[in-house]
């Protein structure tokens, strides 16, 4: 007697989540048409909508419960597109100058669709043969683009934090291999990490998550240009060694978050070699400019680093998420991450990415990057990145020429400045005026964001609250840059009048 079942037929199965080929085709074509139309009109719309959290939740009907029965797929996609098109901050807008988040390449969006459809688990070669080889080729091409050895090891991860984490763990395993079995409690000398005070907060997370504790981070001061003081770095390493510590990792930053400053990487490299310390470059932002004509010469030293973190979803314009960890010696990744339990029966003659990073199940992030690299080529990328840098320099020059603004810094594609009303300029630098200018520029930042006409962020530059414009956007034009200061001057005058009344 056959067992009873609720499945309708033995020869086929109808699942509510499936779609017929014709249904998928119709929904997909409609969605692509909607996206294409939105992209076409994006430059003429708002960068963001001036909405409160309650406004967004109301549009979503955020308090509704899980539906008992489903809704037709095409209608759902229509609803989702309207929710996202009407209630988002658009980092693809040409006047988005806010963060180091790029405008996403259209081919990358299509690549994500294809990758999701095939749904490869790029943890083991057997599970994802072509996807694994595409990722390996993509990693080599990224290394080549920045001048890092193409024989290095590497893999794609979610972003800068994870790329830096992977390199941190590779450094720890290389310099203190006994930790994998004995743990930190077996260490007689405390492991110490060195970073400038401008380093991204990933380093605190890494020191915390990986057992060293945030007190293990030695914060090295910076000069007036926000670059690491290398004399202070070397002296701190010497002092710590004399005190019984174990310096194992120095982080040089290639493009700080606040201003885009680049540490003196060549000097840091020399210090690391003299003291046998792992040299890591956090190049999540700036490493991709290393071979751009006119880029700061210090970037070239990253080619000699032990490891580099790079973010394709920054200056390769890949849709989120896409980070890349590069390690000079592939064996250092294997030493940090490879384990082989009895239930793993995978070929060791091929690349199995579970051996090279913390994830076992891994999505196919490489496809969108691989497609764009092939569509554009290295010369195309060097030109686009160079154009972004040129536009930022042009903005800096405009600020210097404008009577209502004070230029502060310009590095890579980040320009910082502040609004200073003309009548306050003779009194600038007095404590009372500085306090007012900080409040005024904070208010100006709020007003420009609410206007929807542009989007900026802020930075603290030598104690001054600065407006910060970052260009990692292939859609941003000269006209977009030249429209920014007139907008800020108008809104600044309005804010100044309102605050003085």
Total of domains: 3
Strand content: 5-15%
CATH architecture of the largest domain: 3-Layer(aba) Sandwich
Secondary structural class? alpha/beta
Examine the coordinates and then state which fold CATH places here, giving the name of the CATH topology of the largest domain.
Aspartate Aminotransferase, domain 2
Please name the fourth-level CATH homologous superfamily of the largest domain.
Answer: Type I PLP-dependent aspartate aminotransferase-like (Major domain)
Rg value: 25 Å
Number of helices: 16
How many E strands? 11
Largest sheet: 7 strands, mixed
Question: Could you name the CATH class of the largest domain?
Answer: Alpha Beta
Sheet with the most strands: spatial strand order: 1-7-6-5-4-2-3
Give the end-to-end Cα distance, rounded to a whole number of Å: 89 Å
Indicate the mean pLDDT.
Answer: 94
Give the overall shape.
globular
- Helix-strand topology string: HHHHHEHHEHEHEHEEHEHHEEHEEHH
Helix content percent band: 40-55%
Low-confidence stretches: none
Outline of the structure:
This protein is an alpha/beta fold. 43% of the residues lie in helices and 12% in strands. The strands form two sheets. The protein has a seven-stranded mixed beta sheet, sandwiched between helices. Strands 8-9-11-10 form a four-stranded antiparallel beta sheet.
Architecture overview:
This protein has 501 residues and is α/β, with parallel strands linked by helices. It folds into 3 domains: 21-90; 120-363, Aspartate Aminotransferase, domain 2 (3-Layer(aba) Sandwich), CATH 3.40.640; 378-500, Aspartate Aminotransferase, domain 1 (Alpha-Beta Complex). Helix content is 43%, strand content 12%. It is built from 16 helices and 11 strands. It has helices at 21-41, 53-60, 73-86, 106-118, 129-146, 160-175, 179-182, 202-209, 230-242, 265-275, 312-315, 330-337, 366-401, 431-451, 478-482, 484-500, and strands spanning 153-157, 191-196, 217-220, 246-253, 278-282, 307-310, 323-327, 405-411, 414-419, 457-461, 464-470. The strands form 2 sheets. The chain has a 7-stranded mixed beta sheet with strand order 1-7-6-5-4-2-3, sandwiched between helices. Strands 8-9-11-10 form a 4-stranded antiparallel beta sheet. The chain is globular and about 80 Å long. The protein starts with 20 loop residues before the first helix and ends with a helix. The mean pLDDT is 94.
